Give the backbone structure.
Amino acid sequence: MAFSAFASAAPAQEPAPKRRSKIALLLLAPGVLYLVIFFLVPLFTLVTTALQAPTASGDIGQYVPGFEIGNYATVLAQYSPQILRSFGYSLVATVFALLFSYPLAYFIAVKVRHRPLLQNLLLVLVIAPFFISFLLRTMAWKSMLSDESFLVSALKGLSLMAPDAHITGTPFSVIFGLTYNFIPFMTLPLYAVLERLDTRYLEAGSDLYARPFTTFRTITLPLSAPGIISGVLLTFIPAAGDYVNASRQFLGGTGTTMIGNVIDSNFFDLQNYPAAAALSIILMSAILVLVIVYILLSVYVWKTGTEGLL
Amino acid sequence: MTRSMPQDPMIQRLIQQARQAPITRRNILQGAGIGAAALTLAACSTGGSTKPTPAKDKSASVKALNWANWAAYLDEDDKGNYPTLVEFEKQTGIKVKYDVAVDDNNTYYGKVKGQLALGQDIGADVVCLTDWMVGRLIRLGYTQEFDKSKIPNAKNLTPTLQNPDFDPGRKQSLPWQGGFAGICWNKEKLPNGLKSVDDLWDKSLKGRVGVLSEMRDTMGLIMMQNGVDISSKWGDKEFDNAIEVFKKQVSDGQIRNIKGNAYLEDLKSEDTLAAICWSGDITVINAEAGNKWEFAIPTAGGTLWNDNFIIPVGSSEKANAEKLIDYYYEPEVAAQVAAWVNYITPVVGAKEAMQKIDPALADNQLIFPNEETLAKTKIFRSLTGAEESKYGAAFQAVLLGS
């Protein structure tokens, strides 16, 4: 649209293509420069760091440029439980986020469509947590879930929890934190597609004697698929690399560390930069592969009408 | 699969142009050249193991100083001023910027290490860091040597601290404050108290014990419980034995959490009822959150650590920094600081000066430990670079649950 507006404003006769190409290049330059400086150069540094070798003295944090491809094997062997755990946790958190977000987004986008004031209010409530720092909110949950908190005491009082059981430091609390923190990233894209849902299709469905579930399965779900796809990507990708929720300072413990925590520890505590860099590259590549497979599946196998993603 | 061309004429033309600019060999070579240049840059920024050269001293002309230190580590009044520092500025005319920039030895080191390796300014002319980190900085040549004639008050340094193995003769470091790592517990929930590190592993405390993420304190206490003298020359066997104990308590769920300064939050929220902790902190949280906790040096012994002044290699204010260090080695000033921070002052004569400020504090074993108390504590020996890597990795592996 922007392009056609631009074209129509241009003079009717064709200007020399060469000159236009220069303008296009000039317009592209800031973006390209930005990408080179802030993406390509750091990426090169990351790749080279991952291949560094320790100095002869083996002193902490001292590395020389090298070609230690074995760094990858070492970190994979040592940290594969944490890598798998990261993807497991973020997958579960994404599924929960979807289960909670879908009805919510549907309610806001469809059910209260004719009451704009309420609709806007509800949307603000979805975004409201962003007004407070992510860390503070996670910290607040930590104290709400701590052993002497009202919640845990009540659960123990009702014998719903063993006396020596905990909530913080367990996989439950980490997945809970991930789900809670990333839910808006799922709700908003879902809202965006459901808001455009034409309810006349739903009426047509019921006119044709489809049960509500069939209507949902054959009409609402396919029409909202692009929102589900982008919501899943927006939730899964940051959740897999997250290191706050699983951190020992927040909701995690020693048994719930994710790859982000391993990178943090290797970088800051052990000054093992090659290991941290290799793990970052593994994380990036794994996410990239998973995302590509997911998009291919959604476009060619599930036929969700999300070709725009390719 | 053929895709229909977008109808927009502008886009169609852009696509045409793109097709007319195929990838040529020269393009690829250019790209590779840029890549290689980036690689070289990256290599330069991280490589090099030669020691940096100290910056030129400009103290004579520039009367300013940046001091990086830990939180709650300098006397502060209600208005947020630092009385002893204000006095120093008045006496010397040197403007000091006091920056609470150190939250953790490792994190701070991670932040400034690049500049240190290149001998550049790190935004601080004097920094207080813990023994082992100071040892590392000295080993790597990241500090400047003091001109002791400019620090006459250094003669007030406690004799026992004059020759640490990481800096014999205190040529490049001088202690700021020190403290003990020991055990502490919630007096209300555990009225009988704890005596040794083994008491932390009691079944009744399962899942309610916290330990420090500072390796030398946690491992130091466990090793001492195992009967190892941590200040003498021990080796892999002693360390591995202690790591086994630690690993077992973590995997059994006896140890609830392993943290740095944030362990105090767990004590307050009662997630942990007993912990390995730092002496000065317990005084502080007792004052803050009710007199609920007690600290003790375990029967098998506690660790003694110091945070030390150092002048980073890139500082151009060496003489000013030396004046500051000298000032804080005056017993009266040291006493004033100790009365506020509640840690051990390394300055001889501060105890006598403290008698005038607050006689009760002068008898506090955690601020002015006597021979008997000091005999119960040991300093964790300096590790070589390779040991630091190896033991650090073993300790972190337990923290990461692998």
